[in-house]
Amino acid sequence: MAPLELLILQSLAPGPNHGFGIALHVQQTSGGLLEVEEGSLYPALRRLEKDGVLTAEWCTTEAGRRARLYQLTPAGRKRLTQAQDRWAEVAKGMSRLLRFT
Amino acid sequence: MSSQEEFESHIAMRAALNEQAGMDPVEARRAAERAFGNRGQIGEAVRAVSVPVWLEQAGQDLRYAARGLARTPGFTLAALAALMIGIGTSTAVFSFADRVLFRALPYAQEHELVWFGVTGPLSGGTEFILEQNYAAWRKQPTPFSGIAVSSGVNDCNLSELNPVQLRCADVSANWLSLFGYHPLAGRDFRPEDATVGAPRMALISRSLWRTRFGGGNVSGRVLVVDGNRLIVAGVLPEHFELPSLARVDILRVLQLEENKAASAPTLLLTAFGRLRPGVTLENGRAQMEPFFREGVRTSLLSTVKDVRFVIHPLRDRQVRDSKQAMLLLLAAVALVLAIAVANVANLTLARATARQRELSVRAALGASKARLARQALTESLVLGLLSGAAGLVLAAGLLALFRALAPEGILRLSEASIDWRIAGFALLVTAGSSILAGLTPALKTPSSETLTGARVAGRRQEWLRPSLVVLQVALSLTLLCGAALFLQSLRNMANAPLGMETSSLLSVYARVPEARYPHPAQRASFWRSVMERLKSTPGVAAIGMADSLPPQGRTQSRVASSISVPGRPKPTGPAAMQSGRVSGGVVVRHVSPSYFPMLAIPLRQGRVFTEGEDRAIILSERMAARMFPGENAVGQHLTLAGEGDFAITAVVGDVRNGGLVANSDPEIYRASSGERPGQYILLRADSRVVPFVREAFRTLDPRLTLQFQTLDERVREMRARPGFQSMLLSGFAVAGLGLAAIGLYGVMALLTLQRTGEIAIRMALGATASGVQRMVLRQAGAWTLAGAALGIGGVAAGGQLIEGLLYGVRATAPEPLALAIGTLMLAALLAAWIPARRASHVDPARALREL
């Protein structure tokens, strides 16, 4: 599980969101440390959609704009938990590794 | 594009955010766009996610294929042309043959329908039954659930203010129901319509209905045909056709007497039956046999020799005459297609060998063997599909050409068009041949050994390419020889002596309706007045009359055994049989005395009878030789059974009277009295007299239709059909020869290209340019000779099949074969000469450097 996919799934955990919202969410919650590039975001979204982790549909936002809203499927929630666990282990391993040097 | 829309909404949202942060709208939008990046590229990346792998690889294969084909335009064009010609000709001919041999007949339960009757030496292969047979068999428990009869199709005249010539057929009342038709409008015939004395009912064709009645209500309308009143019952359905395929405008109901005496004169009827369900043809034949024997015993047939009962499936009988020619065409086209496929296989093979290194590089870089094979297949599939499309275009063009060039009466050619089944056939042939061609090289293992270039690749399969060339040469020799035979046969036909002179003679045919001219004397007087009037017409140098005209057409004929010499016993016994004195027919023609000088028929002995000398006859030489072998016929007498004795006044030269191909029968001429209703007027004149002739007829009877034709035209028409066949076959032979030459050229060119190094070494060691040329030509010559030897075998095998279609030349005749071999050698020499010349121009220094 690539970090980008984890970021996307994590951003969608609170509720459905559109592409821009996901990018904004990652940027804001990471305090500007992480940024998602559109060039990778949309192919990744399409891949996740194809894997059945996300569903998407066209909706109108509160601002009256048409946007494509992505939503986690049950399979997506399961995958998110797995990814979180895996990431925690990777992070633990990384920090130990870094401290060791 | 949904992802572009999505991107747009993304950018708009960021722009709105930027504006909130205090940017001016234009700047906000621009910044948002910049932040997003290249929308097209991202869209491309999104799309790529959803494309499956195999499709991606297929796209790659297609690109490789296109690139590969474009890199060798010579090969691509040659292969395209070969396949296009093969596919185009086969599709065109198949479309044509399909209509004749394989199409569904427009009849219900077609397989139950049979064409049956009695046949004998006199009927010349046509089957008929007598009225008495029909009356009896309808009521008897025959294997048929129904029998329908027709007395044939004849010209008839719609006698109105503007006379129209139509085609009328007289049929039994159950005709439509037997064949499974329903009238388009009005009603079918009813059984009571067939009783003698009932009003004559008629069914009219759809086109007559349209033109005469504007497609309106027709029931009960009256048509006057040949002076008889017909009441229209209904309209024939759109796809109505007679089993004989003759054109027909009006069906009249036949009214036959129920209980005719066995000896009473009778119509000859063409008969069709529908076998009861479950009865096979063999069963039907067996079950019918006793009824047939009874029918012969109790009718006039008992006096005729050698009658047989025959029963054919309707379709077989219908295509009998054209089947052989059709199958021949199909065979010719199969040969062309085979040559084309061999050609493409060979070219592909040669090219693959040349590309062995490229394939080895790709194999070394990790392409699997399956992948390489798949790519080769893609390439040939692309080639096949392209040429398939081109071939279909060619086929459509060829069909149009056939239609434009074909003489009248070629079975169903006018209906032939490329339909979807045939397009499917073309695709099958395309895919099959291209896969065959692509598979051969694709199955070869590209070994990493070839990467080193140390060895010439593909040595092992060196036998395959030459044998393909040999095969092509053999096949095209077979085709060429067939074409040469047909051309020879056509020339023989054109040069066959007719026994008469046809130039500057015009014939006019008319038929007076017996209803209006019931007495023979009335008809004779009508024709006498016509002759009188035309004699004084300006531009008419001579005038004659005959009830039929050679070399072909409906003639009156008699059984030879009904003619005898008074006072002598009828010739019998094996000797007479052999000399043909008792079997076969004799043509009887009623002519005016001027007939002989006008047609330049030579008078051998005696004098031509004069007008009105109706007890005099003239014999053809063959007839005289038959009746009076070794004697002088003039002055003797002949008895025509039923008509009495006639004095022979002259013997004249033989004239072809059985068409251009069939043997001629002996002939008897009698003085024309003009009593027969239909007559040909012969005029020595050109076509400028036509209006005067029309006027002359009009003043005598305005309601007749006239048919004008020059005698030259009559003869030309008869040659048209064999001419058409020869033309088609020659076209295929030329296509086949061209393909074989392309193949030979392509292979020789590639081989010499591969041998450039070897040739350079030879030349560096002192070989001369002409020596190198000889070497290349020798190889091509050896292949051609081997192919020709094989081809002669093919000719010998195929010859028997076409013997029946030839005239005046045997299939084994040496001249056409020599002509074919000569043409083939010439083409082969030409095809090999170009690469040979190129090989001799190799610059040894350069070639050796590149080795």
Instruction: State mean pLDDT of chain B (0 to 100 scale).
Output: 80
List segments of chain B where confidence is low: pLDDT < 50 over at least 5 consecutive residues.
453-458, 572-583
Number of helices, counting only DSSP H or I runs of 4 residues or more of chain B: 25
Rg of chain A: 15 Å
Shape of chain B: globular
Could you tell me the strand content of chain A as a percent range?
Answer: 15-25%
Structural class of chain B: alpha+beta
**CA gyration radius of chain B, whole angstroms:** 37 Å
Number of H/I helices of chain A? 4
Overall number of strands of chain B: 23
List SSEs of chain A in N-to-C order.
Answer: HEHHEEH
Compact summary:
The complex is a heterodimer of chains A (101) and B (851). Chain A is of the alpha+beta class.
Question: What does this protein look like?
Answer:
The complex is a heterodimer of chains A (101) and B (851). Chain A is of the alpha+beta class and 101 residues long. Chain A has one domain: Arc Repressor Mutant, subunit A, CATH 1.10.10. In chain A, strand 2 and strand 3 form a beta hairpin. In chain B, strands 1, 2, 3, 4, 5, 6, 7, 8, 9, 10 and 11 form an eleven-stranded mixed β-sheet that branches. In chain B, strands 14, 15, 16, 17, 18, 19, 20 and 21 form an eight-stranded mixed β-sheet that branches. In chain B, helix 4 crosses helix 13 and helix 11 packs parallel to helix 14. Chains A and B meet through helix 2, helix 3 and strand 3 of A and helix 1 and helix 3 of B.
